[in-house]
Design goal:
Elements: E1 7-11, E2 14-19, E3 26-34, E4 38-48, H1 74-91, E5 99-100, E6 114-122, E7 127-131, H2 151-154, H3 157-165, E8 173-180, E9 185-191, H4 197-210, E10 212-217, E11 225-226, E12 234-238, E13 243-247, H5 257-271, E14 278-282, H6 290-294, E15 299-304, H7 307-319, E16 325-329, H8 340-343, E17 348-351, H9 359-365, E18 372-377, H10 380-394, E19 396-404, E20 414-421
Parallel strand pairs: 2-4, 5-19, 9-10, 14-15, 14-17, 15-16, 17-18
Antiparallel strand pairs: 1-2, 3-4, 6-7, 6-8, 8-9, 10-11, 12-13, 18-20, 19-20
Amino acid sequence: MSHDGRGVVHVDGKAVFVDGALPGEKVELQYTLVKRKFDEAKVVDVLSAAADRIEPKCSHFELCGGCSLQHLSPEAQVDYKQTSLLDALKHVGNSTPVEIIPALKAESWGYRRKARLGVRYVHKKEKVLVGFREKRNSFLADIEKCHVLHPKVGVHLLDLAELIGSLTVFDAIAQIEVAAMQDVTALVFRNLRELTVEDLEKLRTFEKEFNFQIYLQSGGPDTVAAISDDTRRLSYEHPDFNVNVSIEPLDFFQINFPINRLMVKQAVAALELEADHSVLELFCGLGNFTLPIASKSGKVTGVEVSERMVERARHSSEQNAVENTEYFVDDLFKPNQKAPWFTQDYDRLLLDPPRSGAREILELLGPRKIPRIVYVSCNPGTLARDTDLLVSQFGYQLDKAGVMDMFPHTTHVESMAVFTLNN
């Protein structure tokens, strides 16, 4: 399998990436794209199926680009991701973990609480579509429901399409941002034209009927505004640490609550914290890890490039009466080495960078020899690259590594690695 979930076969020495094919299968395929170095194709018929092949739950699976692995059993999906991680660590990171962390798993359907739904009025069909793009093109898939989205939203795609189709601005709603929280589900409609009084009344009626909290966004993030006065606070909990993290509708947060809770619990345990430890957390975001770590250590210093996110993290610390945290705004790809956070000493480091990884900041912090590092990654390739840096240049050992099935039925690989200094 390729990293995007397609089967790979060589025909006359040329690689062909085949949508819907699994390793070990014999299939009949149809070419969809021919290039000089490789070709693309899709399965027409499975002549000999792999043992791990299952029937996709969603009738739109072959069309919709939201998922790519529904034809592979959930257990095999996790094995595929764990293998992808270990292969990257071995071949790019030149390391094999001393211990493989068992994969973190939870319910694989209805888990997605954060999403951006496309909206488009299709003239040929004379109707509004709401959902995700088709596989490998820019068209919106014509789907009725999504089994991966949290059911608070996933079963209401047609209701949303019907609502938008009834508005005077039916062709000027570009997208809907979804934030399905514990007690309330926020929907942010990106409107390219102003809504009429009648349009707003329809939205408020819909909001009450389906128990949504609807916002409009006419421009940048600062233009997001609720359509009703009675709005409820958006948040999620970490019950094991007795903390509650506040968010705003457009904020980034981990989309899978059960896996997120298990992940944070695992990270805190992996840090092996003591009451007097000083912890540095990089790419801290809203404080997803910060507040739980603070409950087990002496002090946590969080650093994040977004001032809005840092303000939200500070607010959550205050709401939870957590007094041993401090936050700084800094670009961790070009950090201010004279900043107070940079010049302090730390006992532990936790980092959760974007897909581009953390090489720039690790090159600066590596010589500091922080005794224990926990690295949460959303890209095995950059984690492996940074592993090679820590191990080959700064004397660390890769103690543990494993995946967390944060995004079932997709090829997205979330993982965690633990590093300690060699004695």
